[in-house]
Design brief:
binds zinc ion, flat, 22% strand
Length: 206
């Protein structure tokens, strides 16, 4: 197997689990681009997302001491949002990834009762140890999306687990950027200091 594809598979596998929040959108765009270029499409999945309405505890009814009426937030359905996402499934190296293609709502043209989801709810990923995922994401940006790398790298800090090179370096740059260098030097006192212009209580003209 092409070693680049193999390495890319690993990088995305980890990066996908700890995407830098500061470049989330850019990460998904890069993932989409690289999967199309280096991955092999192996099929399609359909994911079903249904979010319950919090206002009425998914009952569809709002009630208090005086009255009971259909919940205004969900129009009495108990469902805050529901949609189906068509996902292209790709194989990249050892791993499988999904690229969203279309989001379908009940009122969408492409909706039909035949939609049979095979993924229910969001897929949750366990974050790898020591920010390894974030590290992999920065390497991907460095090699394949230099513009985002230069724009976002070092713009956020990591409070803990800085054990990998780019996470460490990014944190360092962030700290240096935030450091108030001016505080290191004695403050210049201006000759006509503003305090000269202040009135004391007794001198107040009114
Ligand atoms: Zn509701």
């Amino acid at each position: 197997m092409n070693p680049i594809i193999h390495i890319l598979g690993y990088l995305f596998h980890y990066a996908n689990r700890d995407i830098p929040l500061i470049a989330k959108q850019e990460f998904y765009e890069l993932k989409q681009k690289l999967l199309k270029k280096y991955g092999t499409k192996v099929g399609q999945d359909i994911q079903h997302i249904k979010k319950d309405c919090y206002s009425c505890d998914a009952t569809g009814w709002f009630s208090n001491e005086w009255k009971e009426e259909p919940c205004w937030n969900c129009m009495g359905t108990g469902v805050y949002e529901e949609f189906w996402t068509k996902l292209d499934k790709y194989k990249l190296g050892k791993f499988t990834f999904h690229n969203p293609v279309e989001r379908i709502y009940k009122h969408s043209k492409s909706f039909s009762e035949e939609i049979k989801p095979n993924i229910e709810g969001y897929i949750s990923h366990k974050r790898p140890k020591y920010r390894v995922g974030t590290e992999c994401a920065w390497w991907l940006f460095l090699f394949f999306d230099r513009k985002t790398f230069l724009k976002r790298f070092g713009k956020t800090g990591y409070p803990s687990h800085k054990r990998t090179p780019l996470v460490f370096l990014g944190n360092l740059i962030f700290r240096i950027r935030c450091f108030r260098w001016r505080d290191l030097f004695p403050k210049k006192v201006s000759q006509n200091s503003y305090s000269d212009l202040y009135y004391t209580d007794e001198e107040l003209p009114f």
